[in-house]
Amino acid sequence: MLCNRASDYRRNAAAKNLAGCDDDTNGCRNQSSGSGLRGAGGLDDAVAGDVDGGIGRVGHRGVAAPVGGLAAAPGEIVGLAGIAGAGHATVLELVSGRRRPERGTVLLPGGRPVPRGLRGAIGAGVALVSGDRRRFGLMLDKPLWDNIDQVRAVALAADGPLVSARRLRAHARDQVERLQVRTPSIDARAGALSGGNQQKVVFAKWLDAQPSVLLLDDPTRGVDVGAKAEMHALVRGAAAAGAVVLLTSTDLDELAEVCDRVLVFHRGAIAAELGGEHLRPHALLEAMNTGARQPGSHAAVDPDR
């Protein structure tokens, strides 16, 4: 056994705060999420509200800590921040279908519940861009055109069951030019590109599907400043097109620059919501480490108090 101690998050109040940390022992352990606070309090089982076509509320009945609902609207870029294990990553897992809520419901735009599993969520309009492109984002030994067409043409069969390689290649070439991927050819292996260009291919693959919900899990990790700026433009473009964008990042400057607002998690609960002039890296860092509400921030309220 590796750990000195373990907690059962099924019975942990903080896990219930996140409406779905139903893993047997690991609980809320990753670092991503995205959805904003829209009200508080214990929600009835399987109850979630639609927020103007955005991500609906997520909640548990009988929550013990002050979070009853999370929501994000179309066109909004919402960040979630927290130190390792704070619980913010669990929201991305719930919205992407990789984890099921213990109680409550996650609603996608239009009021649809999130299907079970990532494949089902992709079919429902969810895209997940991971910063760990070597493990989750790319087929490094495959050519660029094969990578770019994987979601839209293969997983979603958007062009029908039979598509010619010529058509796929032409479409991939358009995407490479649009995202300014620096490569000698669309036949080049993805693994031969620089880190920034590899991540552009990951963005190309997911944005090509025109998702209604874009989940970003530390999406610019390990890329240079120029490539990061280009990716930020892509994120803003997706939001401008009406997507709900949920962003987690280990780069606090990125959260402050890109997001409309950021929810800060501390010990499994939302400690603060920062936006506008109060959304600064230092304020994020302090809230992440102390759980203290920052000036100008909003915090969830426990209705039982």
Shape, per Cα inertia axes? globular
> What's the gyration radius in Å?
19 Å
Low-confidence sequence ranges: 1-53, 56-68, 300-305
The main pleated sheet reads as: 6 strands, mixed
**Beta-sheet strand percentage?**
5-15%
Would you give an account of this structure?
The protein is an alpha/beta fold. It folds into two domains: 1-125 and 211-305, P-loop containing nucleotide triphosphate hydrolases (Rossmann fold), CATH 3.40.50.300; 135-205, no CATH class. 31% of the residues lie in helices and 13% in strands. The chain is built from eleven helices and ten strands. It has helices spanning 13-17, 89-95, 118-123, 133-137, 144-148, 150-155, 165-178, 195-207, 225-240, 252-258, 281-290; strands spanning 36-37, 70-71, 77-81, 107-108, 112-113, 126-130, 213-217, 244-248, 261-266, 269-275. It has a six-stranded mixed β-sheet with strand order 6-7-8-3-9-10, with helices on both faces. The protein has a two-stranded antiparallel sheet with strand order 1-2. Strands 4-5 form a two-stranded antiparallel sheet. Helix 10 packs across helix 11. The chain is globular, with a radius of gyration of 19 Å. It starts with 12 loop residues before the first helix and ends in a 15-residue tail after the last helix.
